[in-house]
Here is the input.
Amino acid sequence: MNLVMCLSHSIEEYDQLALLSELGITAASIGGYIDPAHPHDPKRPALNVPLVPEVRDAVDQAGGIAQAQARIPPAVLDWLGDDGVIVYHHLLERLLQQWATLRDWLHGGSARRVIWRTVGQSNPDLEAAMAVLRRDGLEIVRYSPKESNIPRYAGADALIRFYKDPAVWDGWIGDEQIVTTVCQNMKQRDPFTNFGYWEDATHDLPRVPLGVGSEAIGGPGTIPLDEMVTRLRHARAYLYTGTQPASYTLALIEAMMVGIPVISIPYTYMQIVPYGPGLFEGDEIVMPGGDARSARHLLQTFLDDADLAADYGAACRRTAIKLFGKAAVADEWAQFLGVKVPA
Here is the structure.
C-alpha cells in the first residue's frame, strides 16, 4: 500500500510516518518530512524511514511543498496506484480547493481512500464542509471523542488518538524542583493558550517553560527534541494549560508518558471558543488544578514532596500508556487501513 500525507503538524507527521512505515506501508510526506533524513522543522529529529523519490521529485517539479499541497501533482496520484491512501490534517482549504480532482481520483479505483485526520483544530464551518465531502467518500479519523460536541459535527469513521512510544518517552527523575510546561508561543498566543492562568499559578514558583517562543517568559526558546525530553525528565511538576479549541495536545501526552506529575487547567477556563468547555478533555485525563490558586498549591505540594510527585507521575504514565501507547494505536491504524501489525 502506498500512502501520502499532506500534513501541517510536524510532531504528528514524525510519529505518523514512523508508525505507518513500521506497519509495512510505503508512506511519504508532502510536508516537513518530504526528505525524512532532513526535516524542515529544526526542532524535530531526522527520521529513519525510506525516502520516496517519486513523491519528492514530483513536489520539486510542482514548485515546492506549498504548491504540491494545494494541488497534489498528477505524478503523486499515479504513484499511489489503485489502493493508495491520501491523508490530510488541518488547514483544509488545500483539500477543499482541489476536492473535484481528488474525488475523481478516489472513485477511479475501488480501494482508494482520502482521509481527514483531525488534530484538534476544527470548527462548525469546517465540520459542515467536511460533511459534504464525506457524502462523496471522504473518511474521517478523529483524535478525541470530545470532538462530537463541535456544532455541525460531521461524524467519524474511526477514533484513533495520537501516540507516543513508552520505550522512548520514559525515565522521569524529578530531581529539579521546578515547574514546567511545553507550549508554542504561550504568551504571544494568549488567551488561546491560557497564559494568564499559567502566570497566576506559577509566578512565585521556580519555573522554566519550554517550547517555541518560551524565551519571552523566561524559557530557553526553541530547543532540540532530546534536550526537551531531558528537561521533562528532570523537572518536578508540569502545569498543563491546554490550547483552545483543542481537546488536548501532544505536549500533554509527552509529559504524561515520561512520568512527570501533570496538573491540568480545568475545563471551565476554556471559554474563548464557545464550545470549548464541551471539547476540552485534558482535565479528564489528569488531575484538574481548579483555579490558579488551587493549582499553585498542588504544584507546591509536588515541589515539596518528591515521593508524592513520583507516585502521581507513575499514575500519569499508566494513563498515558493506556490511552496513547504506541501498541494500541498501531493496532487501531492497522485495523482501519486493513494491514497486519508485524509480529
Observations:
- The chain has two domains: 2-163+326-337, 176-324.
- The mean pLDDT is 95.
